[in-house]
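Hello,

Following up on my earlier ticket. Below are the two sequence lines again, exactly as submitted.
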Amino acid sequence: RKEVEQDPGPFNVPEGATVAFNCTYSNSASQSFFWYRQDCRKEPKLLMSVYSSGNEDGRFTAQLNRASQYISLLIRDSKLSDSATYLCVVRSGGSYIPTFGRGTSLIVHP
Amino acid sequence: NAGVTQTPKFRILKIGQSMTLQCTQDMNHNYMYWYRQDPGMGLKLIYYSVGAGITDKGEVPNGYNVSRSTTEDFPLRLELAAPSQTSVYFCASTQLGGQETQYFGPGTRLLVL
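Thanks for your patience. The regenerated structure is below:
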């Protein structure tokens, strides 16, 4: 089983739709969780950290479920500009190395 | 702050040639990483460093070498380039214990022919 797994998609949604991605992780000692966004042919950039209590940033909501070992990202009112690949990142306690998922591709169409 | 800078942006190498990919960060981060990303694939860790003078192998270190003589610089050396090393290379840095944001450079696109 891979350490961090994501559905590669693509998720093809119309503008204004709500879309959700999940990411599962295998190491129960994981303690830091993030969503990164990567545009085509660009470097990844932090979208948001994921806290135990969940967090929201505008149209984006991230949740952590430790019992089932997954994190989620919800995007409301999708915009064309949200089209990108969303990378799930997990770091275990005591490790210097974040583990990246392969990413989920989102395509928002008019 | 410039953040993480990488040079060159793009390079074509012939099989067997060598080159150094440069990476510099101005955020005083202790942790630095080199990743490669093949088309449609995720990031694979090549090497990482937890501070000046300390480096360690990642998932795919074969064919590469690194050094970390200063906090700011973390060059990646390719010896005897092979077509399998055609990829996009990203350098990143972070400071664990705080927000832990990994800051990435813009990448170096390498083509080995």
